[in-house]
Design brief:
Elements: E1 7-8, H1 12-22, H2 28-46, E2 52-58, E3 63-69, E4 75-79, H3 83-93, E5 98-106, E6 113-119, E7 128-132, E8 135-136, H4 140-151, E9 156-160, E10 163-164, H5 166-175, E11 181-183, E12 185-186, E13 189-190, E14 196-197, H6 203-208
Parallel strand pairs: 1-11, 4-5, 4-7, 7-9, 8-10, 9-11, 10-12
Antiparallel strand pairs: 2-3, 5-6, 13-14
The structure holds uracil.
Uracil is lined by residues 82, 135, 137, 194-196, 199, 202-204.
Length: 211
């Protein structure tokens, strides 16, 4: 289903798993496992429009024309640190993808994201690039990450998250109308501290058991 802007992947299996993740008493081990399973399911939808090309293969009985993915291997870029929770499930499904990482922190005075780490695969301009972060809240990190990837040459980008706030979707599309957002849910709103409501809390803390 597509709302005005974001692509909502609300498969019943995803809704069921996400509801368990949201519960405050779900332990980190189960939270991580469910995030990995949901990201596998999200990946199917995100990759629905990948191009394939014919390839001749031998089955045990005869020659047939199969299909293989066309073009260069995909690039997955995780926004540290919570992005790694989504990354794992995507790599299960696309094991040959190249992986990049981007680290951003929020400057206390300007409140703007500042890059502290960047490592990207080569030839990013020729790869479909999937930027992953579980929570699209204010959208500032996602916007900054996509700004940086475009500067590095990426031309075909999709953004994949678990939960999105309407404010984050609006801000993101104001800056990057060419980059589709895929999300498993669109929640009600942000609170005064920038948390998604009803949300699931701090995704990084819940994945890694920190506070
Ligand atoms: N980041 C999180 O981890 N959770 C939120 O609710 C918002 C941003």
């Amino acid at each position: 289903m597509t709302n005005a802007k974001a692509i909502l992947v609300d498969h019943p299996l995803i809704q069921h798993k996400l509801t368990i993740m949201r519960k405050a008493d779900t332990p980190s081990s189960l939270f991580r496992q469910l995030l990995q399973e949901i990201s596998q399911l999200l990946t199917f939808e995100v990759c629905r429009d990948l191009k394939t090309e014919p390839v001749l293969i031998e089955t045990p009985l005869e020659t047939m024309e199969g299909q293989k993915l066309a073009g260069k291997k995909l690039c997955l870029v995780s926004i540290l640190r919570a992005g790694n929770g989504l990354l794992d499930g995507m790599l299960d499904v696309i094991p040959s993808a190249r992986v990049g990482h981007i680290g951003l922190y929020r400057d206390h005075e300007t409140l703007k994201p500042v890059e502290y780490y960047l490592n990207l695969p080569d030839a990013i301009e020729d790869r479909l690039t999937l930027v992953v972060d579980p929570m699209l809240a204010t959208g500032y990190s996602a916007i900054a990450a996509v700004d940086r990837l475009k500067k590095a040459g990426a031309r075909q980008i999709k953004f994949v998250c678990l939960l999105a706030a309407p404010e984050g979707i609006d801000a993101f599309y104001d800056h990057h109308p060419d980059v589709p957002i895929y999300t498993a849910a669109i929640d009600r709103q942000l609170n005064d501290h920038g948390y998604i409501m009803p949300g699931l809390g701090d995704a990084g803390d819940r994945i890694y058991g920190t506070k």
